[in-house]
Design a protein that fits this description.
elongated
Amino acid sequence: MSKIKGFLGGVSREMKAVTWPTSKELKRNTIIVFGVCLLFAIFFMVVDFGIDSILDFIL
């Protein structure tokens, strides 16, 4: 039981040492992540359509 208390105490100390992002930083980073995901989705969609077109042409 003392190991669990020690672990939870360590977790609590570490959580207090964390530097949390501000609301502005969080919004900006969220927009960046969604934007990058959208770009990757578009890129892979174009590649998929290209490969599909090439295979349709060959077959």
